[in-house]
Amino acid sequence: MLDDTEAEVSRSTAALHAWAEQLPEPVCEAVMSADAASPVLFRAVPAVRHELSPLRAAVTEWAQGFGFDRDTLADLVLAVDEAVTNAIEHGYRNQPAGIVRFFAGHSPVEKAVNVVVADSGSWRPPPSEPGVRGRGLSIIRAVTDRFDLHHGEHGTVALLSWKLPGEGAGGPAG
Amino acid sequence: MSTGTQTILSCRVEQHGDATVVRVAGEIDRWTEDDFAQAVDESMRGRPTRLTVDLRDVTFMGTSGLRVLVEAQHETQRMRIVLGVVPGRGVARRSLEITGLDQMLRVFPTVAEALARA
To answer: Does any CB of chain B come closer than 8 Å to the CB of residue A49?
Structure first.
């Protein structure tokens, strides 16, 4: 028999897997490979700007357990904020009450942490003017070990990954 | 208590002779960007000779905050105000480094040095 906490974890794992199955395959794999024994964040937040701060706080707390150095931790929070800000700004111009789905988990297989940000809005390319806001995607690309962006008819899905400390940032040389 | 009205950014403007210092504490993101921009704009209104933005107590700064600094750089150049930034050793410094803005802005280790040398 499951106690209350176990039942809750089991329900949320089922919800997580149901959600993951709708995602593009590589993102689905990243979510499914999450270690159930490690802390996982799985949230649906309204697409409003004041949700950014509590989400950053949750991500900071979650990420602190993996041994990243201070700069990598700052990079991770910065990149996640950019991705969520994009989801809020670009995905919901015509749908004020939209939802952004957020996942963060540790994949023992990939020896990495994965963050997924998904919106159900219509994708708009970042502004072509070289303004700082247009650099948001370049910043994410620069500070992640892996960054995939999938645009589909159901919205945009971003996957951000960081190799765990000591695992190396790149793949095999050559 | 509503999360939506919780204060996560504070900006205080101080006068030091003909120089102005904006002391910023908390988080600069897409939500608080306008408050930060407003504080910087107001601090320029008195046409100080030097404007120093003290970011040492900033606990988060995304591209929203960086954009305000870039605009402030353009505006202060136009108004012949010398802009200095004190990022401290925390996340504001990291955000400036990643985007290369630390090369574009006048960066100082302390407010005293910004006031003395800016």
So the answer is: yes
Distance in Å, alpha carbon of B29 to nearest chain A alpha carbon: 8
Q: Calculate the dihedral angle through the C-alpha atoms of A48, A120, A56, A58, rounding to the nearest 10 degrees.
A: 110
Provide the residue ranges of all domains of chain B, joining segments of one domain with +.
9-117
Contacting A with CB below 8 Å, chain B residues are 3-4, 6, 8, 27, 29-31, 60, 62-64, 66-67, 70, 90-91, 94-95, 98-99, 101
At B38, which amino acid appears? Q
Q: Which residue has the tokens 């003395």?
A: B116
Report how far residue B111's alpha carbon sits from residue A2's, in angstroms, rounded to the nearest whole number.
58
The pLDDT value recorded for residue A171 is: 43
Residue-level length of chain B: 118
What global pTM score does this model have?
A: 0.88
3-class SS of residue A24:
coil
Does domain B9-117 sit in CATH 3.30.1360.120? no
| Closest residue by Cα to residue A76 from A17, A163, A134 | A163
pLDDT single digits (tens) A55-111: 999 999 999 999 999 999 999 999 999 999 999 886 566 555 588 999 999 999 999
Q: How many CB atoms lie within 10 A of CB A92?
A: 21
Q: What is the mean pLDDT of residues A49-56?
A: 95
CA distance A136 to A86: 8
DSSP track, A139-162: HHHHH-SEEEEEEETTEEEEEEEE
**Contact A22/A14 with Cβ under 8 angstroms?**
no
Could you report the predicted ipTM of this complex, rounded to two decimals? 0.90
